[in-house]
Amino acid sequence: MRLKDSSVLGYALLGLIQRKPSSGYDLRKLFAETAMGNYSSSPGAIYPALERLQAQGLVLGIVKDMAGLRRRRLYRLTAKGSAELSKWLTRPIERSDVKRGVSELMLRFAFTEQALGAAAAIAFLQQFRAALKPYAAGLQVYLRANAASMPLSGRLALECGVRGYRSMYAWTGYAIRQYRQSQSGTDSRPAKTRKGGPR
Amino acid sequence: MRLKDSSVLGYALLGLIQRKPSSGYDLRKLFAETAMGNYSSSPGAIYPALERLQAQGLVLGIVKDMAGLRRRRLYRLTAKGSAELSKWLTRPIERSDVKRGVSELMLRFAFTEQALGAAAAIAFLQQFRAALKPYAAGLQVYLRANAASMPLSGRLALECGVRGYRSMYAWTGYAIRQYRQSQSGTDSRPAKTRKGGPR
DNA sequence: TCCACCATGTAACTGGTTACATGATTAC
DNA sequence: GTAATCATGTAACCAGTTACATGGTGGA
Questions:
Q1: Rounded to a whole number, what is the distance in Å from the CA of A58 to chain B's nearest CA?
Q2: Cα–Cα distance between A175 and B160 in angstroms, integer?
Q3: Which pLDDT tens digit goes with each residue over A103-116?
Q4: Which of A119, B82, B133, B196, CA to CA, is 20 to 30 A from A42?
């Protein structure tokens, strides 16, 4: 009897709660306002998800009587929840993960630093890089083999994919360099300086 | 009483069926084998989806007694289905489409050429391009404004997104050039094109 | 005969969406 | 007192997943 792993939404919630104990309302706002907007929102998704996490013992919600405001249920990770989050973050990256879509991997990356430290983030990037390379190459091979028999639109759509994966591959190199740089400088605190921007 | 628009899967099925009348089995194989793998597969999704499309009158399934094989139900588009597909393909591209994810847009692009001709595909690319530019710029602005207060991982994740959108923007330029080239050279397609002349 | 494969379906479960309900607090 | 906002929930519905069922066909 397999306990279904938490959905991506579940892991996103775990990650955010780990970062800072939060109420459902807080989390909704985060999803709605920050660049994580592609992840769902709306009470009908989040409150039930939090209940599921609590039922699995990954999270513990305590009603706080915030002076002067309506009671809010503050969730924080349990030890089990923390372990589950770590397990998800360190799960080996496979071809199928890349294929299924890169957004879950980016979410994992975004949480790795604060949950497991910069070294783990670098390790993640290296794995990601290693998975991207053959994937892009495979697409390229498929493209070369089938280009002649595909309509132009199909060929171009594939090329778009190849370019996207290549771009991400290049990004992993850049990101690793950034981490190394931030480590060699002041230790422990990831450098917030250097707002160069991409490119 | 709004009939819910077909889901993305529904449109994907319409597009594939338009290209060539197909059975559920054919469609499953397409999803499983071609680079469209990210779209679902598995009978439990496809057969019910086909039934829904039929119930909406977008598609008509006829049992063919393919000599020597088990009967297969061949679906083909109805006029209504064709119209619905065209409506989806030509729906204006908005910021929210880009945000929600680019894969639906790529699917639309891939079907546009065969359904509506090369001119429509070019028009789609131009719209797509026009939507990508401000989106990437907006991300960039957000990044610059918040980089200082974000952990390195968050900053890098955002930068990855910016790079991805830039790469896609560049791709739209390339794709438009490719279409122009294919049109000016040997016209393979019977000219549905030339509506407004390639600007 | 039995197995492998083609092809279609179905049932149980899960999770997300939309829309609404509820109640507490602050501002007027 | 009433409106706006904070905050949590709930119910109905819908689509997708997994896993299984069905049955027809060809080949050993």
A1: 24
A2: 9
A3: 999 999 999 999 99
A4: B133
